[in-house]
Amino acid sequence: MTTKAESRVIAIEEHYQDAELAKHYPEADKPRNAKLIEQLEDMGAARLKTMDEAGVDVQVLSHSQPATQKFDPETAVRLASETNDRLHRMMQANPKRFAALGVLPTPDPKAAADELERMVTKLDFKGAVVHGLTNGHFLDEKQFWPIFERAQALDVPIYLHPGKPSQIVSDTYYKDYVEDYPHILGAAWGYTVEAATQGVRLVLSGALDAYPNVKFILGHLGEGLPFMMWRVDYSFSRAGNKPGLKFRDLFTEHFYVTTSGNFSDPAILCSVMEMGIDRVLFSIDYPFVPNDRAWLDWAQNTSFSADDRAKIIGGNAASLLKL
């Protein structure tokens, strides 16, 4: 039976921007769209109005990319702490409508683990979000494993949000089309490749064996990985690979996926069939995708039972984040 808590609509990858943090971004990472900046920075009536119109009860807020992944360690530690404190204060105005995944100063992994503990135990945040590479380094590298150890101990997830591809990748793969199709670096393709690669590398790294209860979230219905699951799993089982890897088992045990910015019937059906109904979470990806009742209507009219739909639109997030 669906409980009252599970009937809430919880959107789990909804973005905001801290104006003070954004001042420190390199020029190439500063957003240019004035309307988008206004939506990202608003935490008041306008945001709540769009939530109400879209039928969203709770937004789980996370900072837009690149957050604190591209700073030097000292600057990242200071800005992450200040940014998380400001978000906590803003949330106090509407604690029933907002939850949060805080930013981590991953350029200093030990400090990032400490900040994760502080924001969960002191600020009541529900986990953390990491945007792409940390100054060119993938998150599976062992220097970052203290973050996983702390996340496991705290029983909170880490959201692997895409970041812009590295310059080498951009120049090699995309530069011929960037002028006419700049979004090839972003949501159209570049983001997917970056975030999916993070996910694959984490499975290969041994981190999931070292921390058997650590949990990760991938947006955009898993960045395509559920669709590729059989092929990836089978390919890694072939001779020539290190034996013993159970890619499918590790991925489906440790990862959740969200609907953020991917409202496709075939894609969600595939994700549920590969991941299981308990691993799929509702998200809109506001304001990069506008709040619209159509997304909730889509989620509520997918080809699942009423109880399974209730899990997707809020029950799974409530359980994962202890909302």
In brief:
This protein is α/β, with parallel strands linked by helices and about 325 residues long. The chain is built from 15 helices and eight strands. Strand 3, helix 5 (about 110-120) and strand 4 (about 130) form a beta-alpha-beta unit.
Task: Tell me about this structure.
There is one protein chain. With 323 residues, the chain is α/β, with parallel strands linked by helices. It has a single domain (5-321), classed as Alpha-Beta Barrel (TIM Barrel), CATH 3.20.20. Helices cover 48% and strands 11% of the residues. The protein has 15 helices and eight strands. The protein has helices at 19-22, 34-41, 45-54, 73-91, 109-121, 145-154, 167-178, 190-205, 207-210, 219-222, 225-236, 247-254, 265-275, 293-300, 306-321; strands spanning 10-16, 58-63, 98-103, 128-131, 158-161, 216-218, 255-258, 280-281. It has an eight-stranded parallel beta sheet with strand order 1-2-3-4-5-6-7-8. α5 (109-121) links the parallel β3 (98-103) and β4. α4 (73-91) packs parallel to α5 and α5 (109-121) packs parallel to α6 (145-154). The protein is globular. The model is unreliable at 1-6 (pLDDT under 50).
